Amino acid sequence: MRALILSDIHGSALAARQALSFFEKFNCDKIFLLGDTLYHGPRNPLPAGHGPMGVVEALAPYKDRIVAVRGNCDAEIDLMMLDFSIENEYAVIEDNGFHLFLSHGHIFMPECFPRNALESIESTGAAHSIELEIAAKQKPSIDVYLYGHTHIWKLEKNFRDVLIVNPGSTSLPKGGNPPTFGFYESTPATANEPAQAKFSIHKLDDGKELATFSITA
Q1: What share of the chain is helix, strand, coil (3-state, %, to 5)?
Q2: What pLDDT is stored for residue 122 in this prediction?
Q3: Closest Cα partner for 112 from 160, 165, 151, 58?
Q4: pLDDT band at 209 (very low <50, low <70, confident <90, very high)
Q5: How far is residue 31's CA from residue 59's CA, in Å, rounded to a whole number?
Q6: Distance between alpha carbon 99 and the CA centroid of its chain, in Å?
């Protein structure tokens, strides 16, 4: 799988179109959309190129390739405007033996997110999930947590050995960062090599790679 990782577009049609241009450039199969897609939020300024309907139109051609979760700024009306589901607080994807947990980041804290998080999340009903793309009956250990919310990109392992991946914001970056997005690609195991997953952070304006992190199954 090869996936474009986007978060915190906050209604910028300009940022959405720029980010989506890398879908074909990077030969992607999927888009992981990590929340705060249309509404700019009461604490944020209007981003450049603000136009929520333009974001809707830009995303529409990719509706069957998007896995999306709901952010703290995603309102009920946003659910009605988009052609794909964003009502779930998290999603879990299995790819080449890796288990990816997608959430906006305001409910599940990434710094202390454990590998066995699904056991407690699903037993307590703490949040609603998109349908699990997992064949195994036993709850899998999470390898990677993808999130947004902070508008600051991050690519490192937490103290519980979970890789945490924040692509930053495409429209309203913080911490002195430029607008950014993320990219994910995995390769299956072979007779001689284990499966590998690679995550990278890129500048929105030119696609330049800022950081990369790889893990093996």
Answers
A1: 20, 30, 50
A2: 65
A3: 160
A4: very high
A5: 10
A6: 14
Helices (H), the chain: 13-25, 52-59, 76-81, 117-124
Strands of 69-170, DSSP E: 90-95, 98-103, 144-146, 154-157, 163-166
pLDDT band at 137 (very low <50, low <70, confident <90, very high): low
Burial of 89 (C-beta count, 10 Å sphere; 0-12/13-18/19+): buried
For 9, 52, 180, 208, the CA distances from 87, given in Å and listed in that order, are: 17, 18, 24, 32
One-character DSSP codes across 33-57 = E-S--S---TTSPPPTTB-HHHHHH
Closest by CA to 78, choosing from 59, 103, 52, 58, is 52
Q: Could you report the per-residue pLDDT of 31-56, keeping only the tens digit for each?
A: 999 999 999 888 888 899 999 999 99
Pick from 198, 201, 190: nearest CA to 216? 198
Supply the DSSP symbol for 115.
T
Q: Under a CB-based contact definition with an 8 Å cutoff, are residues 153 and 166 in contact? A: yes
* Residue 120 pLDDT: 81
